[in-house]
Amino acid sequence: MSDTSAPSFRTKVADWLSGFNEPVRFLLIAATCVIVGALLFWLFNQVFYFYVTKSYVDEIADAYDLNRGFTGALLWATFPAVVVLAGLSFSFSKRRRWTGYGGLLVLIIGHSLLIGAASKNFTRGGDAVRCYVLTRNNVKVLNRVRIDPETGLECRPLTPVMQEKIALYQKGDRPTRLTASNPTFFSAISGEPVVWYWKDASGTIELFDLMGYHPQTGEELKPVTRQIVSEWQSQAAKVVKRAPTKIDPNAYAFYDAVSGKPQVWYWRSDADEYEFYDGPGFQPRTGEPLQAITREAIANWRRSVAAAAANKKAEQERAEQEQRAEQARKDQEAKAQAELEQQARQAAAEAERERLQAANDCDRLAANPTDRRRTSEGVSFDMLKGQADSAYDACTRAVQMFPDELRYQYELGRAAQFKDRKQAFDIFTKLVAARYPAAFDNLGGIYLYDRKDVGNAIRLFTTGASLEDADSMVSLADLVDRGLYGQQDPYRTKWTLLNKAAQLNHQGAQRAVTEEKSRMDNTAAQQEQQREAAQNAAAVFGTILGGMRR
In terms of residue numbers, what domain contains 24? Predict the structure, then answer.
C-alpha cells in the first residue's frame, strides 16, 4: 500500500510544484529542508539534554542511595530546568544568555557539591573506602586507605565490625579484660576478629573486648588470629579449674606484688553492685563470667562505694529531714488540735456559762418565793409583773438549755401569765401531770379566776396542799373566808391551813397568823380586864352591903 501511495504522493507533490516557476520551486524545497533539519536538530537536543540530565540524576541517586521513585521525580524535575536553561544559552538576548549560563553553572556546581558531600564507607563491591587510625585518646577516620601523614601509622580499612567498635571507643569505652572460658573471637557475619590480645614476655595471653592499649603496659592491643586463639585455648586448658571464693576487697591485694598480675576477679550487677573473688569463674547466682580486676574497675568500685555511702548518708539525712518534718507536722497538728480543744473547751465553757446565766436569770427574775424547789429568794407576783418580759425571755432560754428541768418550766409559766395565758395554762397543766407542787396553785388560780371553775380550783388547791405547797394552802384559806370551802368548821380549817403555810415560811401566812395571835391575845386581855373589873365591882358591892348590915 505504501508503494502505491508513495508515487501518488510524489506525483501530487511534483504536480503541485510544477505549477511554480523554477526559483519558487527552489525556495520551497529549501524551506522544507530547513524546517525538517531544524526539527531534527531540536529532537536531537532534547534527547541529548535528557541523557545528560539522567546521568546527572543517576550520579546523585547513586551517591545518596535514593529510591527509584524519588530518582524519577528528581529526573523529571531537573530535565525541564536543563532544557529551559540550555535554550536561554542560545538566545539572541545577552541577558537571557547570561541567565542560561548562570543557571547551568549553578546546576553543575550543585551536582559537584552533592556528589562530594556524600560520604561512603564502602563501594558497591563491598571494598572499604575509608580507614581508621587508632591513637591513645581517640580514633581518626580518613577517607582513603593509606599511611596517616600526621602519626605515620597505618590507616586500616574501616570494616563494619570496626565501625561499631570505633563508635564505642569514641563514646569513651576502653578495652576490658575478658575472663570468659569460651569467648567469641570472630564475627559470624564477616569473619573479622572481634577480640584483641596482648602477650607478655613469658607467652601469657590476655584477651580484651575492644581495640586500644594495655591498661598496665601501654602497648597497643592486636586483633586475634587463629594462631593466637589456639595458643590461648592451650593456655586456658592448663589452668586448674576451681570454684572462686568470695573475698573482702578491703583486705585482699588486687595485684601480685612480684609480677603485677591481677589476682582478683569481680562481678558487677546492673545496679552497680560489686562482688570480688579470688579466681576466675562464674557468678553463682547469675552464671555471668567473672572479670579480671583492672584499675578502671577498682576506680569504678570505689566511686560506687563512695556514691553508695553518699546515697546512704543522703537517704539518712532525707529520712531524718522527713522525720523532723513529720514531727513538726505532728507538733503542728497537736498544737492545732490543742487549740481546737481549747476553743472547744472555751466554747463549751461559754455555752455552759450562757446556760447557767440563762438559768440564773430565770431563777432571779421569775422564781416563786414559796416554791420549795427554788434556788433563789424569788420574786412576788406583783414584782414579777413589772419584769415579765425579761423573765419570759430568760426562762425561755433556760427551758431550751435545760429541757428536763421542771423548775424552769414552772418559772416560764409564771412569766407567761403576763404574756400568754394559754401558754401558761398549758405549761401548768403539764407540770401538774408531773406532780410539780407549786404548779397546782397557779393552775387552780387560772381555773378560779379565768374560768370561774371553783370545783377544779378546790381540787387543785387541795392536791397542792397535800404536796405541802404553801400557796395552795393559803388559796384554800382564802376560799374558807369567802365561804367556798370548809363549811363545817371554817375557822379551824382556815387557821390550820395558815399555820401549816406559816411553818412552810409563807410570809403572808406568817403575817396572818401573827396578826390573829395578836388579836386573840388582845381579846383575852380584854376579857381578863373585864373579869377583874367585875371582881372589883363585886367586892365594892359586898363592902357596901356589909356596911349596910353593920
Answer: 16-117
- Say if residue 240's pLDDT is above 60: no
**Three-state SS annotation for 366-418:** HCCCCCCCCCCCCCCHHHHHHCHHHHHHHHHHHHHHCCCCHHHHHHHHHHHCC
Sign of CA dihedral 271, 277, 279, 284: negative
What is the spatial order of strands in the sheet that 274-277 belongs to?
246-247, 274-277, 265-268, 291-292
What confidence tens digit (pLDDT) does each residue in 517-545 have? 777 677 667 766 777 766 766 666 566 55
Instruction: Report yes or no on 216 lying in a domain.
Output: no
Same domain, 414 and 454: no
CA-to-CA separations, 296 to 172, 209, 292, in angstroms, rounded: 12, 15, 11
| pTM to 2 decimal places | 0.40
Q: Does position 436 have pLDDT exceeding 90, yes or no? A: yes
Containing H/E element for 235? helix 226-237
Please say if the pLDDT value at position 1 is more than 90: no
Write the CA distances from 360 to 80, 376, 391, 401, 402, integer angstroms.
114, 9, 11, 12, 12
* The last residue of a domain, from among 401, 419, 437: 419
% of residues, the chain, pLDDT over 70: 80
Specify if 129 maps to a domain. no
H/E stretch holding 71 reads helix 68-89
In whole angstroms, what is the distance from residue 329 CA to residue 335 CA? 10
Place of cell 548518708: 313
311 and 412 within one domain: yes
Instruction: Determine, yes or no, domain membership for 173.
Output: no
Domain CATH code at residue 505: 1.25.40.10
- Residue 341 and residue 339: Cα distance in Å, rounded? 5
List all residues 6 or more positions away from 50 whose beta carbon is below 8 Å from its beta carbon. Answer: 79
228, three cell numbers: 593466637
Count of structural domains within the chain:
3
pLDDT at 39 over 90: no
Identify whether residues 400 and 351 lie together within a single domain. yes
Domain termination site, one of 92, 117, 142 = 117
**pLDDT above 50: residue 2:** no
Q: Would you say how long the chain is, in residues?
A: 550
